[in-house]
Amino acid sequence: MPETVSAAPPASLTPTDVAIMVVGIVLGIGIFKTPSLVANYSSDETVFMLLWLLGGLVTVVGSVCYAELGSARPNAGGEYAFLREAYGPRVALLFAWARCSVIQPGAIAAAAFVMGDYANVVWPLRPYGPGLYALVSIAIFTLINYMGTTPGKLT
Question: Where do the domains of the chain lie?
Answer without folding.
Answer: 31-72, 78-155
